[in-house]
Amino acid sequence: MKKLVEVQNLTKYFPVLGGVFSRPIGWVKAVDDVSFHIYEGETFALVGESGSGKTTCGKTVIRLIEPTKGKIIFEGKEITKLSQSEMRPLRRSMQIIFQDPYGSLNPRLPVGEIIREPLLVHNIGTKKEQEDRVVDVMKLVGLSPEYLHRYPHEFSGGQRQRIGIARAIVLNPKFIVADEPVSALDASIQAQVLNLLLDLQKKLALTYLLVAHNLAVVRHVSDRIAVTYLGKVIEVAETTELFSVPLHPYTQALLSAIPVPDPDVKRERILLQGDIPSPINPPSGCRFRTRCRFAKDICKEKEPPLIDVDGEHYVACHFVKKGKKTEYTVS
User: Fold this and answer.
1) How many domains does the chain have?
2) What pTM did the predictor assign?
3) Contact at 8 Å (CB) between 185 and 157?
4) Which band of pLDDT confidence, cut at 50, 70 and 90, is reported for residue 101?
5) How far, in Å, are 67, 81, 210 from residue 44 at the CA level?
6) How far apart are CA 241 and CA 151, in angstroms?
């Protein structure tokens, strides 16, 4: 399979300002030395607790947020150091669906103008061609062209998210970052929007980077999953592989929290102690060690590398070896 996106040692630090002159007195290590790749036509998911750096990573990959260091390669071309003018043609190929369907739409513009705006920015087509394209895209996402002149406040949350999706696909992009696209929607609407995203992926040959914390959503739509914790990627695997054989203790704890629909099936619940540490001053060595029931001295002294243990199953843990052999013992 061809790699569409490659992320190498991606880092994003935000300054913590203080003092009379508002100088940096620390750094929020939102994304810290993250590497992964995304194949053409797949859905690659970033999952983890709130504060793990998922959204920052997703926005940095398409340079809505500028990286501190690292490389981002899109279609074989490094885009990290391109100027804004050089990035402009590439913007047509990479778009984003925002989490908040209420705050991401301009309340002063009718729906037709909101969807048409990317075409105006990139100077694509005549006015008639733009209007026709907007109508086609609205039909594609399940919105009636009769809504062209209505304003965002006249729509439900699910309809607004469809408008956001229409705006993202109107330029025929190849790559879309979906930042928690259903987390703000009612449960009854979430499945409709997820199925819409899957249908569009097949029809338009789209590649998704899905940012989510709902593992049920991720399991339904993703091909591969990267588990993040405190700015680090700690496990990457195919979806079925990750759910059947989770190797990192943090992944095991996340999956143990998923409700089982069968009341006769009992699952061991792994409870994590304490809260996620501050990204300003993360723990030394393994960042998960302060909440890990298997932590040893080596976890404090040395950061585990992300290694491939069984062909495309990557894990960052001192006690996971080649061939999925584990040496977990409670200390």
Assistant:
1) 1
2) 0.92
3) yes
4) confident
5) 20, 24, 6
6) 44
CATH number at residue 195: 3.40.50.300
Instruction: Indicate whether 142 belongs to any domain.
Output: no
Residues 6+ apart with CB under 8 A from 313: 235, 236, 237, 238, 241, 242, 245, 247, 324
Kindly state whether residue 130 falls inside one of the protein's structural domains: no
For residue range 113-139, list pLDDT tens digits in order: 999 999 999 999 999 999 999 999 999
Mind listing the pLDDT tens digit for each residue in 163-220? 999 999 999 999 999 999 988 888 888 889 999 999 999 999 999 999 998 888 899 8
Task: Please report whether residue 329 resides in a domain.
Answer: no
Comparing CA positions, the residue from 171, 154, 178, 170 lying closest to residue 105 is 154
CA–CA separation, 314 vs 237, rounded Å? Answer: 6
CA dist., res. 203 & res. 198, Å (int): 9
> Is 264 a domain residue?
yes
Buried b (16+ CB within 10 A) or exposed e, 138-166: bebbebeeebbebbbeebebbbbbbbbbb
Q: How many CB atoms lie within 10 A of CB 187?
A: 7
pLDDT score of 50: 85
Question: Amino acid identity of 274?
Answer: G
Q: At what angle do helices 187-204 and 157-169 cross, to 10 degrees?
A: 20
Domain range for 215 = 3-93+173-324
331 pLDDT band, cuts 50/70/90, is very low
Contact 79, 87 (CB under 8 A): yes
User: Between the CA of residue 42 and those of 93, 183, 223, 291, 327, what are the distances in Å?
Assistant: 15, 21, 6, 33, 33
- Interhelix angle 157-169/127-140, rounded to 10 degrees, is 130
